[in-house]
From TrEMBL:
<feature type="binding site">
    <location>
        <position position="167"/>
    </location>
    <ligand>
        <name>glyoxylate</name>
    </ligand>
</feature>
<feature type="binding site">
    <location>
        <position position="130"/>
    </location>
    <ligand>
        <name>FMN</name>
    </ligand>
</feature>
<dbReference type="GO" id="GO:0010181">
    <property type="term" value="F:FMN binding"/>
</dbReference>
<feature type="binding site">
    <location>
        <begin position="79"/>
        <end position="81"/>
    </location>
    <ligand>
        <name>FMN</name>
    </ligand>
</feature>
<keyword id="KW-0560">Oxidoreductase</keyword>
<keyword id="KW-0285">Flavoprotein</keyword>
<feature type="binding site">
    <location>
        <position position="263"/>
    </location>
    <ligand>
        <name>glyoxylate</name>
    </ligand>
</feature>
<dbReference type="InterPro" id="IPR000262">
    <property type="entry name" value="FMN-dep_DH"/>
</dbReference>
<feature type="binding site">
    <location>
        <position position="260"/>
    </location>
    <ligand>
        <name>glyoxylate</name>
    </ligand>
</feature>
<feature type="binding site">
    <location>
        <begin position="314"/>
        <end position="315"/>
    </location>
    <ligand>
        <name>FMN</name>
    </ligand>
</feature>
<feature type="binding site">
    <location>
        <position position="236"/>
    </location>
    <ligand>
        <name>FMN</name>
    </ligand>
</feature>
<dbReference type="InterPro" id="IPR008259">
    <property type="entry name" value="FMN_hydac_DH_AS"/>
</dbReference>
<dbReference type="InterPro" id="IPR013785">
    <property type="entry name" value="Aldolase_TIM"/>
</dbReference>
<comment type="similarity">
    <text>Belongs to the FMN-dependent alpha-hydroxy acid dehydrogenase family.</text>
</comment>
<protein>
    <recommendedName>
        <fullName>(S)-2-hydroxy-acid oxidase</fullName>
        <ecNumber>1.1.3.15</ecNumber>
    </recommendedName>
</protein>
<dbReference type="GO" id="GO:0003973">
    <property type="term" value="F:(S)-2-hydroxy-acid oxidase activity"/>
</dbReference>
<feature type="domain" description="FMN hydroxy acid dehydrogenase">
    <location>
        <begin position="1"/>
        <end position="365"/>
    </location>
</feature>
Amino acid sequence: MGPQYVCVDDFEKEASKKIDKSALDYYRSGAGEQFTLNLNREAFRRLRIRPRCLRDVSHLDTSCDVLGYKLKWPLGIAPTAMQKMAHPDGEAGNAKAAGEMGSIFILSTLATTSIEEVAEIAPKTCKWFQLYVYKDRSLTEKLLRRVEKANFKAIVLTVDAPIFGQRWADVRNNFSLPSNLRLANFESSSSQSDGVHGEEGTSGINEYVSSQFDATLTWRDVEWLVKSTHLPVIVKGILTAEDAILAREFGCSGVIVSNHGARQLDYVPASIEALPEVVGAVGNDMVVMLDGGVRHGNDIFKALALGAKMVFVGRPALWGLGCEGSGGVKKMLQVLQKDFEITLALAGCKNLEDIQKNMVVHESVFAKL
């Protein structure tokens, strides 16, 4: 009899036994002192749900529409790099599970499975592509053409990573991509494919990013990207109203409120803390989504009440993958889906439209007895 999984933490505990320590530290660590890493979850705990009673919830409908695509429920899988370090199924296994659960899967530029292979193995999954812009702009243009040809539905531009944050565990481990793996979206002989190697006292991923990513990007480059593809462009990494408004002005179709899993700049707000500000600025004009700290069904509910149209999970999908490959990801999503349905019903909501802003408030609203 295998492990019993009743919550996301169960998947993390089991995956921690199976994933190599260097890879595990890479996946789970945050920047600096990891204040924001802990805050991402703690901030959800500071929010209280105000449930309504005696409202017929005998039939639940969790479906939603995001950028014209009908989904079974408002949760997708966020982009995370180098997933084959967790399990040989890698990104393709994650994408397959997402499709089986009616979710969106976002493929990272830094994937260990290629765009084409993911498209072949998970043809029915709604797939978006997370983009980093390289100094060699022609590489970016080639990625766009490949993504369009492979029937991906959106481009997700990460805008909070001109360089990568200081993650102490990666430096201590001299983190490198294992020699049997490569960044599969590039030619195997190129420096973009196999350059993730850490020297003594360095992180290979940080060295790679410094040498390859274009740190000169501005909002004018976002405008260039929007004009360079027929796919909708979503910017990921927005934490302020000011940047959300700029995303709207430069032609983006949506924003993902995110602090990059707390892996970039420490002491920034938790994603859920920044969400109301962004929704207030552009929520009537753009699709606002969120990732960061989502571990429970009530986290999903809280984010939707505060204005997100959809939420994404990153690390939980890696834990599912590390446990049992694609099947483990599906089990993890099933656990979250069931938890969300229970939350929805007990809060007095039969569908997503029933979730109202006043159903979630900060703990400070209540008297401290």
